[in-house]
Amino acid sequence: xxxxxxxxxxxxxxxxxxxxxxxxxxxxxxxxxxxxxxxxxxxxxxxxxxxxxxxxxxxxxxxxxxxxxxxxxxxxxxxxxxxxxxxxxxxxxxxxxxxxxxxxxxxxxxxxxxxxxxxxxxxxxxxxxxxxxxxxxxxxxxxxxxxxxxxxxxxxxxxxxxxxxxxxxxxxxxxxxxxxxxxxxxxxxxxxxxxxxxxxxxxxxxxxxxxxxxxxxxxxxxxxxxxxxxxxxxxxxxxxxxxxxxxxxxxxxxxxxxxxxxxxxxxxxxxxxxxxxxxxxxxxxxxxxxxxxxxxxxxxxxxxxxxxxxxxxxxxxxxxxxxxxxxxxxxxxxxx
Length: 336
Ligand SMILES: NC(=O)c1ccc[n+]([C@@H]2O[C@H](COP(=O)([O-])OP(=O)(O)OC[C@H]3O[C@@H](n4cnc5c(N)ncnc54)[C@H](OP(=O)(O)O)[C@@H]3O)[C@@H](O)[C@H]2O)c1
Description:
By secondary structure, this protein is an alpha/beta fold. 38% of the residues lie in helices and 14% in strands. The longest helix is centred in the C-terminal third of the chain and has 21 residues, at 238-258.
């Protein structure tokens, strides 16, 4: 895919240049532990635009339409100030959850997203998970139709492996892959980061703060509420947490030595992994929103990056990132 050279300090996302730090909006509807009051979400969104956030990431799944609705009503009339990404493909009804990336389902979902978002185009539309009941080629053909009709600007894939990405890109250019990536989740290093670089696909790192852990917002899983799904994640379980938190304390020490916050160090590490990488930290907290953007152009020295690499990686962290049940829906390569 031919991409334009990004503006200074920005990175390429499809035909746009965006700030390397975008805003993951999931927290505004589905914060770990509960839903944020709408008034707080509205304030966060307005302040985010003022701070220079120009890439907002949402999904139908976040609050089952609540997140798209919040963005739509809050940002109506401001559409030209940000790059809008949303996702489809995961459906939930009561206790039933399924994946459907068929062209028919995608079209219906896209039309509903456009309505909720109060816009006539979505810059980047992702398939939230790989649907192994149909060939990826068929799913991408459905998305390509939406591009042709001007409903979406580009196609994205989430939690996919490099082979799936390559098959998809043979049908239509893929603007972005959004997989989990942070110091403590290195799976994209197996193959996806390289495949993205080769194909001209931007890599969007989700949960770049390790779901808050690399921002030092969790000192003990006991402070997490029982409804917070991190509680079921193996890394947070008592048999792994003590060891993992020991590494996080050392990480916090490096942040202090560098004169930045742990969140700023974690984000700088992600952005150091390639010019084709952007990150979308999530927050429902005004101070954190400001902090995450404040040092987006800071680059740690090579020796600091090397120390971080050695301290926290797939060999040093104990426990899987997802529970067994959640791993069942994942197509992307995983360190076992
Ligand atoms: N494609 C997918 O399947 C997928 C999956 C998960 C997430 N995502 C996307 O990725 C975005 C971010 O992921 P995420 O929310 O899971 O994880 P994250 O960005 O790694 O971490 C978010 C957590 O960190 C805390 N935090 C943020 N900035 C902080 C700071 N400066 N200091 C202290 N704590 C801080 C937040 O709490 P506060 O609210 O208190 O700041 C929140 O608990 C989501 O919003 C969503 O858009 C995509």
